[in-house]
Amino acid sequence: MAMFRDHHTSRREFLRLGALGVGGLTLADVLRLRAQGPTTKKTRAVIMVCLAGGPSHLDMYDLKPGAPDEIRGEFKPVRTVTPGFDICEHFPLQAKITDKLALVRSLQFVEPMQHELEEVYTGFPKSMKRPSFGAVVSRFKGAGVRVPSYVSLEYSTGTSSYESPQYAGAAHRALHISGGDGVRNLGLLNGISRARLDDRRGLLHDFDTYRREQDARRESQDMDAHTAKALDIITAPRVRDAFDLSREPEKVKARYGDKDAKFIYAGKDADSFWYGHNFLLARRLVEAGVPVVTLRAGLWDHHGNVIQQVGGKSIWHSLKSALPLLDQSVHALVTDLHDRGLSDEVLVLIWGEFGRTPKISQTGRDHWPDASFALFAGAGCHGQVIGETDSRGERPKSRPLGPQNVLGTIYHTLGIDYRQTLTDFSGRPIQLLDDGEPIAELVG
User: Fold this and answer.
1) Residue among 224, 226, 47 nearest 145 (CA)
2) Tell me: the pLDDT tens digits for 272-323?
3) By the 8 A CB rule, do 392 and 64 touch?
4) Is the residue at 255 inside a domain?
């Protein structure tokens, strides 16, 4: 902790490190325009889990046991506590709580077969350059000056294009927790080891000491009013404590699984971290008052040729290791929110950027935007299956919906009219969504 105990550490360096050394964080920017928007003391929240890479609807939530061999895959559907809500056999925990879930099986995307996450985060293809839904929520439903309005638990470095605030304003970019080591080191920058982070008492003492020193040096020209508020957020006990998973009872952390759990992606061995404690951190953040938390979980791009190139076996070999981890994380998050009396206040959304081809190719499946799923929980969702695909899982047979309907449902739940406008960089008023009619079954 020598870095923080050095009295010569500059304000600018401290803010560059951010909350516990968060990479890519510029909280001063996040706050600069927030004063323009209304805030409420109690705001509904959303946790969005992105299964990036294209999760296979046919092997997870929309199995087709009657389809030909080249379509149906190796897994069997199992009945759940909700009639007609059959899901994969590797989801036994979710099967017990489908009365708390809502599943859309008729989701279609526009983006032509590329791994662009813009539709998931903005509702539009990448070329449209629209603001992320988290930035929109921050703009219209900010959490106040002491709590960030938008937190991303992204595991890449820096702010990604799909989470960009665009013309919603730089003040509404996400507070970004980055780095491949996930929650365990909160994306620390060079110079701060995990051992230093684990010295929590020393770290918290240094935060408190730093605040006292800065209170006596506020006359500095490089700290404007919003930068001072940024420092308040970084060091505020409410937010600081939310990031401290050591405050959770061991039995609660155990529900979310082993923090070092790994899964098989394309090879034969489990060598990819799951980061299941991001789900727990998301719960802690919304409980602390953060309106939007986003995270990514797993790797889902299961092409047959990719699997074979690295000596792997099949899409099902990989999914057998990943699906139980997803099952545990979803079950833990949903039941934890329910047990803590938060299920009516927090909407949970789990989805990816498209589904996968019905036809099996070299023991894998390729990209397929014409059919996918979205799984909801909380905020009134209960035991529903919305929409249906055809017998081969190729396209919707009923109730076709798009990503804008999904995000429109989020906006509606949070009290935001998707027909409101923001002024783009050229001065034109742009509606939040073109076709953002919320999913009636979820908001009726």
Assistant:
1) 226
2) 999 999 999 999 999 998 999 999 999 999 999 999 999 999 999 999 999 9
3) yes
4) no
Q: Is 30 left (phi over 0), alpha (psi -120 to 50) or beta?
A: alpha
Q: Are residues 275 and 208 in the same domain?
A: no
38 lies in some domain: no
Phi, psi of 144 (to 5 degrees): 110, 175
| Closest to 173 measured CA to CA, from 191, 154, 148, 201 | 148
The partner residues of 331 in beta bridges, in order of sequence, read none
Q: What residue type is assigned to position 412 of the chain?
A: H
Q: 394 and 278 in one domain? A: yes
Number of Cβ within a 10 Å radius of residue 238: 11
For residues 104 and 165, membership in a common domain is answered with yes
Which pLDDT tens digit goes with each residue over 198-237? 455 555 555 555 555 544 443 343 334 334 445 666 566 7
Instruction: Note down the domain range covering 201.
Output: 1-32+187-242
Same domain assignment for residues 290 and 325 = yes
Cα 347 from Cα 46, distance rounded (Å): 5
Calculate the alpha carbon distances from 284 to 118, 153, 342 in Å.
Answer: 26, 13, 11
d(CA 330, CA 343): 13
For 400-419, how does the pLDDT look when each residue is reduced to its tens digit (9 = 90+)?
A: 999 999 999 999 999 999 99
Same domain, 174 and 81: yes
What CA–CA distance (Å, rounded) separates 229 from 214?
A: 12
Which pLDDT value is given to residue 124? 97
Whether 91 and 198 map to the same domain: the answer is: no
DSSP string, 102-169: EEEEEE---S-SS---HHHHTSS-GGG-PPPHHHHHHHHSB--TTS-SEEEE-SSSS--GGG--GGG-
74, 28: one domain: no
Residues 400 and 272 in one domain: yes
Alpha carbon 77 to chain centroid, angstroms: 27
The pLDDT, as a whole number, for residue 148 is: 87
What is the count of structural domains for the chain? 2
Phi, psi for 400 (deg, rounded to 5): -65, 135
